[in-house]
Amino acid sequence: MPASTKPRIPVYRHHKPSGLASVRVEGRVIYLGPHDTPESRAEYKRVIAE
After folding, report:
1. Which of 3, 5, 12, 39, CA to CA, is 20 to 30 A from 32?
2. What are 4-47's pLDDT values in tens digits?
3. Pairing relation of β-strands 13-15 and 28-34?
4. Nearest to 44 by CA among 19, 23, 16
């Protein structure tokens, strides 16, 4: 029996061509706003909490 795995937390990423922050959730890429801003970090926390 394989060991159980922990749920993975989606990674906060920088989409370099557009300068936007993004996160991949369930195969969908969600753009959060300009990278490394308080607003995009807050949006990231909101998205992964769902």
Report:
1. 5
2. 788 889 999 999 999 999 999 999 999 999 999 999 999 999 99
3. unpaired
4. 23
Whether 40 contacts 23, CB under 8 Å: no
CB 32 within 8 A of CB 45: no
For the chain, the first-to-last Cα distance in angstroms comes to 30
| pLDDT class of 1 with cuts at 50, 70, 90 | low
Residue pair 23/13 in contact by the 8 Å Cβ criterion = yes
Q: In what order do the strands lie in the sheet containing 28-34?
A: 13-15, 20-25, 28-34
